[in-house]
Structures
1.
Amino acid sequence: MDGSKYNTLLDNLKASSSLPFISKPYIISNVPHLDGGLTDPISFKRALELGYEKIVVILTQPSSYVKELLKLPGFLQSKYKKYPKILKALKNRHDLYNKQRDDLFQLYEEGKAFIIMPPTKIPAKRIDKNLKRLHRAYDSGYEYICAHGDALKRFLKL
């Protein structure tokens, strides 16, 4: 791999690891970047644009989850005041997530998407060091795929 491709990959990884609230935006070619979840919270549309007819999507929330409006504390508005697009994305995040979720479930109804999701809220937090909670979350995912693995194989025609 030549150096420019490596640098691009490394830059993209650093940018996608720059989480809002926690990290500063990562600058690539004088453009600030944060984790893509701000503007594409449930990433599946690109696969459709590339022509894939069936997609498998992993959600971290149960089907009943609806994202609510995030009230931005003053310090966040201050932190991102130089980045109005980031502020706008943060303020509209719930609408975008819920729209993508609805679109995804429509694809599921049409037989074009297989959704792997927890039946209930995941016991672990977003950033969690509690090993018991992490193991429960892992076990829950493992049990889910054991129960739904055959359906996934049928969906993929394997």
2.
Amino acid sequence: MLFNNAAITAMGAYEVFKTTQVELCNTLFGELENTNIRVYTISPGLVKTETALKGIETVASHMGIATEEFYKMNEGHIIGIEDAGTGFAISVLMDDKYNGEEIGAI
């Protein structure tokens, strides 16, 4: 099950930041289009970082479910730090393909 974070209390600021990040990428791509500078944004999904794990407790609470239930609902969408790092490194090698794009893990 996937859900939109914007509907969850305390996630609005995060969603605004993520939207702003994508729009900044779009703006920079347009401004740097005829240069050798590549611009793209990565939305890896839920990466198992210490900060994310703490945030999951808050999100689950606002959803009215136990933290364990949140993990079960999203088990196919949570990636480890190593996988996220590997994906980032590969994206750098393929920057021509991703220039001006938003890359998502899911």
3.
Amino acid sequence: MNQPLARSVHSEPAPARPAGNLRAHLAMLLFILVISTTFPVGEAISPALDPRALTFLRFLLATFVFAGIVAARGEWRMPSPAQAARATWVGSLLAFYFVAMFEGLRYTTAINTGALFALVPAMTAAIAWLLLRQTMTRLQLACLAIAGLGALVVLYGDNIAALLNLSLGYGERMFLLGCVAFAAYSPFVRKLHRSEPLMLFTLWVLMGGAAMLFLFGLPAILSADWAKVPWTVYGGIVYLAVLPTALTFYLAKYATVRLPSGQVMAYTYLLPAFVVMEKMVIGDGTPSLTVFAGVAITALATFILQWSTRGSAKGQRLSSVAK
């Protein structure tokens, strides 16, 4: 889960720390790499279980992971009813995203979902404006448009008729709904998170999401033949519960206090490229030239944001020295 990244997208630029910048950039590259693996892994394991049962098990395991971390830090406490309600709402958004992702991956590819995920920053910007009246720079808006163009090229290639009709398959439509929920996650965290330690609030979010999944997914959970689920599927669920949850929390937190928000946001657009490379590494075929073209267009947004933000940060440092 990439809560720290999502929260940083619309925040003020972080103070420049040149000594730690390289490590921060490496942390964000590892962050996006780990997040990108959720799509091929999800594509591999989604047919084995109902998405609600699969997501419930992931949330349950992630809750235990975070509970151990919070207890070790001495931050555990039970939420008040108001805190529980806020965390449950945020957790429900996250739970819906993962259910939609696993459901969508039953009918579409990891590459298509990875391309659609590049639209999340644009959705987040729209929801943040409606909910918090937060705005973006013209350059950020331009990069959102570039990323959107790249996603369309990946999805439609040379199928002009489908592009003009914006025709999406069931899997893409389902995942797109999940992306809307995920895009709403960041603004609602900013609006509903109070003075609680972020790690503790994240634990409450996981607990609330698991509770809602249990409530609405109980028939699927009870009807699942858990004994016949392949061990590789359980391995995939454990992987998703641990690395893309706990590790990415620390990676994004490390980077967001050392890099300007524009540079952090820029790494999101590399995700489709990572997904394509991972699919090739595991021997799942070579994508078409149009897919490569779309991925390249999306990645272009990363380099534009990195270049422009780096120049801005350098100017701010020179200005500070002059003063």
4.
Amino acid sequence: MVLILLLAICNINAAQPILSWLSFRVEVRNILDADYEEEYGYPGPDRQFFTGLNLNW
């Protein structure tokens, strides 16, 4: 039996310039912490947080 449900995974990201060549970024994936499987038996990741710096030259 195959059960197919419609599910939306919500992500968000933002960046803030610090200098003309440097910006700070933050990202959250799976904001709602939805439980899902893209392939049967392999659960999708939980909520994830990322931060970083972007260098532009």
